[in-house]
Amino acid sequence: MATIPLYRDPQASIEQRVEDLLALMTLDEKLAQLGCYWSTAFVSSGTFDPEVAAEKMPHGIGQVTRIGAATGLHPQESAAFMNELQKIALERTRLGIPIIVHEEATGGFCHRDATVFPQGIGLAATWNPDLVKQVAEVIRAQMLAVGARHALAPVLDVARDPRWGRVEETYGEDPILIGAIGTAYVQGLQGQDLAHGVAATGKHFLGYAMSEGGRNWGPVQMGPRELREVYAEPFATVIRNTGIATIMNSYASVDGLPCAGSPAILTDLLRTELGFIGPVVADYASVDMLMNYHRVAATRGEAARLALLAGLDMELPAIDCYGEPLKAEVEAGRLSQEVVNTAVRRVLQLKFQLGLFEHPYVDTSSASAVFQTPDQRSLARQVVAQSTILLTNDGVLPLSPTIKRVAVIGPGADDERLLQGDYHYPSHLEIIYAAPQNTEATGLTVPQAGGDYAPGPYFTPHVTPLAGLRAALGQDVELHYARGCDILGDDSSGFAQAVEAASAADVAVVVVAGRSGLLRPVTSGEANDATNLALTGVQPELINALAASGTPLIVVVLSGRIHTLASVADKANALLQLFPAGEEGGNGLADVLLGKVNPSGRLPVSMPRSVGQIPTHVGHRAGGDRAMFFNDYIDSPTTPLFAFGHGLSYTTFAYSDLSIEAKDITEPIKIAFKVRNTGEVIGDEIVQLYGRDQVASVARPDNLLLGFARITLAPGQTRSLAFTIHPSRLAFYNPQMHFVTEPGAFTFRIGASSTDIRLTETVTLNGPIIEYRQRDIVDTTVTID
Fold it and tell me: Which residue range or ranges hold the Fibronectin type III-like domain (predicted)?
């Protein structure tokens, strides 16, 4: 009777199984585990060809890139394709090591028929980690159903430059908010046990969003203190709170060090300082970029060696450098096989954690059952409503039940494509179906899938603002629609019809918009950066023309871009921000406009008055809020138009009874207070806690978000809240780059936004200087009675 290898024994420890399997592997088999193939590379003449697959991966393969985000397959078909690929790896290779399929998932699973939730920035605008966790649980269920076990999300970049096209994928500008939303997302995606979950990926490590000129891939220039305290902190939070499975490198260089090839970033900072232990996966083609973009390597072999030595374990989306070029480096003695072994251990560890050796296949017959369910669409609608931010309101909202005539106007009013972000399905797949020459357009080689695998476009049923309002208003309200203009171009021929519709209405809902995507023409998205943050095309002129009609205007900005809206705000009776909202966008928006849902979205970013202010954000260090000598620019205040955390409600809230219990700097600080709904309707308040270290050994932020809480209050209801701040939450890197909390005076501020502060108190905390590790920060907690 044949002896079962130890690595196939589910009763053995993962460590034992990894070492047993590693000892059996040849160099070719090891290198295969560090590589990847596009799923569509196995499709020949529009059909799956098992012989092609067997030929391409004779030694197995680490990952397969994107079945859902590269094809038009329905879930049941996608699951069958995954099973077929898995069967090749299991039955036609010597060791039978299963594959991992990875996918995109920033605003929902990027797969045909999957629920299209709001884009990442929209999730952050809810300031509701519990709701984001529910979103991620849906993504997990849908990915598990088709056998995709690795999601390239969440985006944990700190986005403080709205010129950068990928701001829409992020959770905003503040590391504490990003860390809280990111933690919830990863917990929902990975679940209690990776054997029943999906591996999350924190990206992009590190500093990616603060590039020169706001340009994608641009160099990043910042010091080690800012890099750690701000840009590494969301990653540190998610690592310590969730044990996130994988991390992805940034494309950029930081102070001249390309992240994909930097041991200082991927090993010393990520692993030694922050405690990450899983695999680091390459952002697409970033190993090759060490040679052809950053120019720190002369050959692909040298690029592979630099990346592997830095701590980058897996090359995605295809093998450029980690195949024969890397093998030549090992065989020539320029790279120790022990370095290869370290990376392979991490990959195998993840595959065992995912339970793939025991359960490599999925049930194709039930795959579609967890796609487009009523509960999922209801959740998507709820998220849209909670992400909708009411920026201004003179009382026109909520819409009066006595209104009889409504005009719905604008290029975003009835275009389902504009509800999508750049990583939504199918907008993301335009790099394939809309660009046969995708290599020229994006620099990314995506093997084309034809036949039944061709990617569409295929939309789930998307509810536009026009459709949502039409359904919500019913037949008793007369509704007229006029597009007015496009999002781009100078054609104003539709103005007259739009003005006519507005003039005949009691109120006009004007949905101006952007178009997110990768392939131009778009206004936002990856590699689509901007120098002008105004609304595009003739949309500002459309608003001016409509304002002249005298009809009250409700302006909805449906865009992934953070725009400069000063002139729009002046013309609007109410102004709302709706980030790319997904399939239930129109229904969720209508719920807010009609008052079915009281708006509670809050800005996860600061909205500048003009592009010349950039960067403007809540976390500026001491002195960063003014311009000497006169405190402002010659042509503008230094303050943002709308501050971080801003968002209005249909009710009002009063804060009272502040008390602070604090012994010294060695003990947690308890901050208690009360919030009362002083209005006439039920509503959610986002209570925000900020702090300031009054005197420190380095310049500290003037306004540091320390915690937040969402509370629901009925009219007249009062609730008591208590934040508990651990001293480590006040720590920073001192002049010697030790991570310390210093004694002294601290001001704590509580309010409805970073500038709408209701309660303030300064306390002096005595005691010694305490040194911590950033990886051991204790998050602020809150109790609500």
Answer: 685-754
Percentage above 70 pLDDT, the chain: 98
Residue 746 and residue 762 in contact, taking contact as beta carbons nearer than 8 Å: yes
Question: 617-630: string of b/e by CB count within 10 Å (b at 16+)?
Answer: bbbbbeebeeeeee
Residue 578 · residue 589 · CB < 8 Å: yes
Alpha-carbon distance of 77 to 102, in angstroms, equals 16
Alpha helices in 399-555 (DSSP H): 430-433, 438-442, 465-473, 495-503, 539-547
Amino acid of residue 176: I
Residue with structure tokens 């966790």? 133
How many angstroms separate the CA atoms of 432 and 421, rounded? 16
Residue 277's CB is within 10 A of a number of other CB atoms, namely 11
Other C-beta atoms closer than 10 Å to the C-beta of 769 total 12
Q: Give the span between the Cα atoms of 574 and 392, in whole angstroms.
A: 5
pLDDT number for residue 605: 98
DSSP 167-225: GGGS--S-HHHHHHHHHHHHHHHH-S-GGGS-B-EEEEETTTTSBGGG-TT--B---HH
Q: Which of 207, 127, 119, 126 minimizes the C-alpha distance to 159? A: 207
Of 115, 235, 141, whose CA–CA distance to 182 is shortest? 235
Tell whether the torsion through CA atoms of 425, 243, 282 and 176 is positive or negative: positive
170 pLDDT above the threshold of 80: yes
Backbone dihedral angles phi then psi of residue 52, each to the nearest 5 degrees: -60, -45
* pTM exceeds 0.90, yes or no: yes
In whole angstroms, give the CA distance from residue 215 to residue 591.
37
For the segment 316-338, what is each residue's pLDDT rounded down to a tens digit?
999 999 999 999 999 999 999 99
Mean model confidence pLDDT for the chain: 96
What is the CATH class of 13-369?
alpha beta
What is the bridge-based pairing of β-strands 253-254 and 257-258? antiparallel
- Domain-wise residue ranges, the chain: 13-369, 375-418+456-612, 653-784
Cβ–Cβ under 8 Å, residues 49 and 42: yes
Place of tokens 């295929």: 458
- Residues of the chain by 3-state class (helix, strand, coil), percent to 5: 35, 20, 45
Provide the CATH topology of domain 653-784. Answer: Immunoglobulin-like (2.60.40)
Tokens read off for 572: 């609007």
Cβ-contact 91, 125 below 8 angstroms = no
Pairing type for strands 389-393 and 574-578 reads: antiparallel
DSSP-based three-state secondary structure for 151: strand
* Residue whose structure tokens are 């690595």: 7
Reference 346, options 267, 264, 290, 260; nearest CA is 267
User: Residue holding tokens 């501020």?
Assistant: 749
- Which tens digit of pLDDT belongs to each residue from 334-379? 999 999 999 999 999 999 999 999 999 999 999 999 999 999 999 9
The Cα 666–Cα 728 span in angstroms is 9
